[in-house]
Amino acid sequence: MTLNLKTSLWKPVIYIVICFFSLASIYPLIWMGLNSLKNNEEIFSTNVYGLPTHFRIENYVNAVTQFNILSFFKNSAIVAVVTVIFTILMAVMFAYATARMRWRLSNIARIYGILGMFIPVQMIIIPLVIIVRDFHIQHSLLAIIIPYIAFNLSFTSMVFYAYLRSIPFEMEESAAIDGANIFTTFFRIILPLVSPAMATTAIFIFLNSWNELFTALVVISDNALKTLPLGLIYFQGQFATDWGASSAALTISSVPPIIMYLIFNRQVESALTVGSAVKG
Amino acid sequence: MHSFLNRKSAIFVFVFPFLALYTAIMAYPIFQVFVKSFYEWDGITSPIFSGLDNYRNMLKDSDFIPAVKNGLIFAAVILVYQQVVASILAFIFTSRNLKLRGSKFFKTSFFVPVVLSVTVVGQLWVQLFNYDHGLVNNLLGIFGDDFRQAFLSDPRKAIYAVAFTNGWQFMGMMFVFIYAAIKSIPEQYFEAAIIDGASPFTLHRKITLPMLQETYKFTLVMSITGGLKAFDNMFVMTGGGPGGSTMTLSYMMFKSAFQKGEFGYGCASAVVLLLECLLATLIINKFIARDRIVY
């Protein structure tokens, strides 16, 4: 009885607290979205908090036509998708070999492969720039795709390793009896079984590459190769005083990850949380 | 029986792409960083061995001490904001007999900033912190124009504003993390306490908090190493300024290698950065939560 009384008294306070922090988290983003449809005059004085009245699509038109925001967007999309595909392919094969195939150094190879999770990008960036230059890939998107794949390998293979260990070994035995070779077994039987882990790691890798700034900043110098996080910085340099246009650019680059989160909410939460947790 | 699981050629095909790329991009550079930190090197001409010169110069570098200090301030700000806010929210959402309406919506909203890039969040907060038109200053302006703050151009305030932005962005992640940790505490503990008449506050104080020791230790490591490594937020929001007041070790490394062309010195900064992260992790592991709680 006393317990209930206490909770009912506290309830309004608790609602105020959670509403406050919820607003603190999303209102700035809503503000950004609204600003993207206003001009400076409205943002600064005439219509500071309200909904946009004129729906100034020209902000988006400006962001697209006067500046190559679409090319940044395209680069980000290519980089993210290619990184996802190749990271998963290489990591799942490696995880398969260490989790289920029998060879002498398998355990050592697995541990060696996991250590990368503890290496911050800042540590390896200087030699990495030299490597990219030596391989003559600095003038193509490969200059960031290849490092991104490498950065994500450890975490991805660790997730697949845990997953593959839980699959019964009879899978391969029966496949072998049916006369399938290792590659058919792997692609036809094993890969479909690990698809839930693929979804989680794909989301993790996608968001990581979509949002990555540091490596792109250091490695990419051609304007045509810039990804969104990098391109936005140069956009800001030119449009800093035009809040409407810069909000439009920020909104364009936020839409894909937000949609992804709203659709795959649980997977995104677990992928990012676990991913950053093991990365430390 | 299934002999194909130890066929050498198949194993090679499965592990070679991973090991080759991983070794070239992750392992070899780590080795290189240590070696090159003992050289004077501009990244173009061949390096000249210079012993411990880079490390000695770093101690004399006027950026070094502020960089370490800023890393710790950054860590402290994100630690306080994220841990405190995320813990309070996680406690609320895991409280029994507190039927909250729309809890799914609230939980989702905390996480939205986490999925955005630091560039977007940083640029957005540059606008929010704007002296004349930013939301934060409009809010402070209610109390009078004297209350408006030049958050990002005041050398004493900039690091706090930049760190807060990061704390704000990743609070939702800490929330999910702590929330999941609380959810994994065995239900019987709470049931027993409820039978004994414990209030929600007592439950959290006597059961949840002690059970979360390991989680907190872990988030502490994350915040401190995150603060020492901080770079993106500064680069986007202040460019390390005003007057070097938001300089961090990562930024120092970036500046020396990629703006001044002192690659050897940059490598030495990277090594120091790694050592500091390791040191912080060791200290935390040694002094906090020494006796593990066994479930």
TrEMBL record, chain B:
GO CC field: plasma membrane
Cellular compartments annotated: Cell membrane
Predominant place of localization: membrane
GO terms for biological process, alphabetical: transmembrane transport
Protein keywords: Cell membrane, Membrane, Transmembrane, Transmembrane helix, Transport
Gene3D superfamilies: MetI-like
CDD domains recorded: TM_PBP2
SUPFAM superfamilies, alphabetized: MetI-like
Membrane-topology annotation of the record: Multi-pass membrane protein
UniProt-listed InterPro entries: ABC_transporter_permease, MetI-like, MetI-like_sf
Domain ABC transmembrane type-1 per the UniProt entry, residue ranges: 68-284
Segments traversing the membrane: 12-31, 72-93, 105-126, 158-182, 263-284
Family: Belongs to the binding-protein-dependent transport system permease family.
Protein name according to UniProt: Sugar ABC transporter permease
